[in-house]
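Task: sequence design from structure.
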């Protein structure tokens, strides 16, 4: 059997049986996306790390409730989202999508998640930073709901169906939100330049 979802299902079964190595592998596979999502809500690196830790503990404690109707990643990111929202309320902090994204967590390295080829070219690196700044400014002008939906789709690469599950809304609502976010961003930004950014990534 191949594919991330199938491998996750096997790991979940092993984790339910008390295999600590399976738990560690599930954590390793999904901590980057979990961190990125938490950071988008909280805008603070340490808070995001704390949310990831709390969400992972919740997920591992509740593995028996994972029924396989969605892939493990989607189920986990929903827990991360809800934990980040709760964390923000406890801190009485306004929940907003942060910019720019903090450093990605790499297993055993702590390195930032950059393309070495881009880092070797100062002009491309500056152009990339400029384009990212423009995108984040555009995202800041979106409503919190549109920002979250667009980031789940564009940055985390989630399907409409998976986003609908994370947000507890119909698929049609997700499609409408993404369309509205794209329209607003396109009205505010140079879309060709943003396409260039995507190609750099």
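Answer:
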């Amino acid at each position: 059997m191949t594919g991330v979802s199938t491998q996750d299902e096997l790991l979940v079964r092993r984790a339910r049986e008390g295999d600590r190595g399976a738990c560690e592998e599930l954590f390793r596979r999904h901590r980057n996306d979990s961190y990125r999502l938490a950071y988008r809500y909280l805008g603070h690196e340490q808070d995001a790390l704390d949310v990831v830790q709390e969400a992972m503990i919740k997920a591992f404690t509740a593995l028996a409730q994972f029924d396989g109707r969605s892939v493990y990643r989607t189920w986990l990111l929903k827990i991360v989202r809800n934990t980040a929202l709760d964390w923000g309320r406890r801190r009485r902090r306004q929940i907003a999508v942060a910019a720019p994204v903090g450093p990605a967590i790499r297993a055993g390295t702590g390195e930032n998640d950059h393309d070495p080829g881009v880092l070797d070219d100062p002009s491309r690196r500056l152009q990339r930073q400029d384009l990212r700044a423009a995108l984040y400014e555009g995202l800041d002008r979106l409503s919190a709901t549109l920002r979250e939906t667009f980031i789940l789709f564009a940055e985390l690469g989630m399907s409409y169906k998976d986003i609908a599950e994370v947000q507890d809304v119909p698929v049609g609502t997700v499609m409408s939100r993404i369309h509205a976010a794209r329209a607003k961003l396109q009205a505010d930004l140079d879309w060709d330049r943003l396409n260039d950014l995507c190609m750099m990534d």
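The radius of gyration is 18 Å.
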